[in-house]
Automatic annotation (TrEMBL):
<feature type="binding site">
    <location>
        <position position="244"/>
    </location>
    <ligand>
        <name>substrate</name>
    </ligand>
</feature>
<keyword id="KW-0963">Cytoplasm</keyword>
<feature type="binding site" description="in other chain">
    <location>
        <begin position="214"/>
        <end position="216"/>
    </location>
    <ligand>
        <name>ADP</name>
    </ligand>
</feature>
<keyword id="KW-0479">Metal-binding</keyword>
<keyword id="KW-0547">Nucleotide-binding</keyword>
<feature type="binding site" description="in other chain">
    <location>
        <begin position="170"/>
        <end position="172"/>
    </location>
    <ligand>
        <name>substrate</name>
    </ligand>
</feature>
<feature type="binding site">
    <location>
        <begin position="102"/>
        <end position="105"/>
    </location>
    <ligand>
        <name>ATP</name>
    </ligand>
</feature>
<dbReference type="InterPro" id="IPR035966">
    <property type="entry name" value="PKF_sf"/>
</dbReference>
<feature type="binding site">
    <location>
        <position position="103"/>
    </location>
    <ligand>
        <name>Mg(2+)</name>
    </ligand>
</feature>
<comment type="function">
    <text>Catalyzes the phosphorylation of D-fructose 6-phosphate to fructose 1,6-bisphosphate by ATP, the first committing step of glycolysis.</text>
</comment>
<comment type="subunit">
    <text>Homotetramer.</text>
</comment>
<dbReference type="InterPro" id="IPR022953">
    <property type="entry name" value="ATP_PFK"/>
</dbReference>
<dbReference type="Pfam" id="PF00365">
    <property type="entry name" value="PFK"/>
</dbReference>
<feature type="active site" description="Proton acceptor">
    <location>
        <position position="128"/>
    </location>
</feature>
<dbReference type="InterPro" id="IPR015912">
    <property type="entry name" value="Phosphofructokinase_CS"/>
</dbReference>
<keyword id="KW-0021">Allosteric enzyme</keyword>
<feature type="binding site">
    <location>
        <begin position="72"/>
        <end position="73"/>
    </location>
    <ligand>
        <name>ATP</name>
    </ligand>
</feature>
Length: 319
C-alpha cells in the first residue's frame, strides 16, 4: 500500500483530531502517502482531498471538533453513490480508507469494502457510546465531563433557589450520557429510552428527598426518552419545586478532548494504520478490557450496544 486516506464523518466528537493526527503521523512514519478527505462522505464525492504530512497535523490534538470537518451524507445509503465513491478513490490511487465516526459512518465504510472492495478500517468516534464491541468511543469521556461540569453549576443555583432542574442531554437511542452523568453528579433521577418512566413514582422519590432536607433536585433526561419540557410538565405540579429547564444541546459535542480521549484516539489511530497496511481491513478498532483490538465491522454493526443496566441500578441506589 502506498497511499491511504482518512476522514471524519457524521456527528463530530472531541478527540477526532487526535485520531487524525495519530493516523497521519504513523502513516508518514511507515513511508505512506496520506490524504485527508474533508467533510466526510460528501467531501469524498466532491473529491475534496488534501495531502497531509507530519507537520500539517501539528497542534490539532487539543482542538475540539474536527479539522477535516464532517457531514452527514444521506445519499451514501445508495449503492450507486458508494460505487461512485469507490471509483473516485481509485482515480486518486487511494488504496485504503480510515473512517472515524459513529454508526452511520461505519455502515458506509462497511459497504465500501463489502460491495466495492475498498479496504477500510473504522475508528469509533461519537459522544453517544452506542457502538457495540468497544467499551468506549472517542469523545464520550470529554462529553461526560462537559455534562458533569454543567450539572454541577446548575446544582449551585438550584440549591440557592431551592429549585428543580430538568437537564436534557443528547442520546437519541441511548441513555448512556444521561445515566453516567446523573450517577456521578448525584442526580435524583435519570429518564432514559431503555427504561419506561413512571412519573408518579419519580415524583414520590423526589418528595421523599425533599422531606429528608434536600434543597435541590436534578433530573437528567436523555433526548430520546422525552423532552425536558414534557418531564417538567409531568413533575412540576407533583413535586412542589419551582422548576427550570436546561437543554445542553451541542455544547456536549465541543471542547478540547480530555486526556482519556486523546490517548484512546492516539492508540486507535496507530492501530488503524497498522491493521490497514497489514491487509487486516474490514475491521473497527475497539477498546476491550484496556486493549485496542480489531473487531469485524459487520459483527459490530449487526449488534445494538445495550446500556449496562448495572449503571442504571447504581445511579438509582446512590441517589
Ligand atoms: O450522534 C451524536 C449526536 O450528537 C446525538 O447524540 C444527537 O442526537 C445527534 O448527534 C445530533 O445530530 P445533529 O448534530 O446532526 O443535529
Amino acid at each position: 500500500m502506498k497511499r491511504i486516506a482518512v476522514m471524519t464523518s457524521g456527528g463530530d466528537a472531541p478527540g477526532m483530531n487526535a485520531a487524525v493526527r495519530a493516523v497521519v503521523r504513523y502513516a508518514v512514519n511507515k513511508g505512506l502517502e496520506i490524504y485527508g478527505i474533508r467533510r466526510g462522505y460528501a467531501g469524498l464525492l466532491d473529491e475534496d482531498f488534501i495531502p497531509l504530512n507530519f507537520a500539517s497535523v501539528g497542534g490539532i490534538m487539543e482542538k475540539g471538533g474536527t479539522v477535516l470537518r464532517s457531514s452527514r451524507c444521506p445519499e451514501f445509503v445508495r449503492k450507486e453513490t458508494r460505487a461512485e465513491a469507490a471509483s473516485i478513490l481509485k482515480k486518486h490511487n487511494i488504496e485504503g480508507l480510515i473512517v472515524i465516526g459513529g454508526e452511520g459512518s461505519l455502515h458506509g465504510a462497511m459497504f465500501l469494502e463489502e460491495e466495492q472492495k475498498v479496504p477500510v478500517v473504522g475508528i469509533p468516534g461519537t459522544i453517544d457510546n452506542d457502538i457495540a464491541m468497544t467499551d468506549m468511543s472517542i469523545g464520550v469521556d470529554t462529553c461526560l465531563n462537559t455534562v458533569v461540569d454543567a450539572i454541577q453549576k446548575l446544582k449551585d443555583t438550584a440549591s440557592s433557589h431551592e429549585r428543580a432542574f430538568i437537564v436534557e442531554v443528547m442520546g437519541r437511542t441511548s441513555g448512556y450520557i444521561a445515566t453516567v452523568s446523573g450517577l456521578v453528579t448525584g442526580a435524583e433521577a435519570v429518564v432514559i429510552p431503555e427504561v419506561p418512566v413512571n412519573y408518579e413514582a419519580l415524583a414520590n422519590k423526589i418528595l421523599r428527598e425533599r422531606e429528608r432536607g434536600k434543597i435541590n433536585c436534578i433530573v437528567v433526561v436523555a433526548e430520546g426518552a422525552a423532552s425536558a419540557y414534557t418531564v417538567a410538565r409531568h413533575l412540576e405540579h407533583r413535586i412542589g419545586y419551582e422548576t427550570r429547564i436546561t437543554i445542553l444541546g451541542h455544547i456536549q459535542r465541543g471542547g478540547s478532548p480530555t486526556a482519556f480521549d486523546r490517548l484512546l484516539a492516539s492508540r486507535m489511530g496507530v492501530a488503524a494504520v497498522e491493521n490497514l497496511t497489514r491487509g487486516q481491513s474490514f475491521v473497527m478498532m475497539a477498546l476491550q478490557g484496556g486493549k485496542i483490538v480489531p473487531v469485524k465491522l459487520d459483527e459490530v454493526l449487526k449488534q445494538k450496544k445495550g446500556l449496562n443496566m448495572e449503571l442504571v441500578e447504581l445511579a438509582a441506589l446512590l441517589s
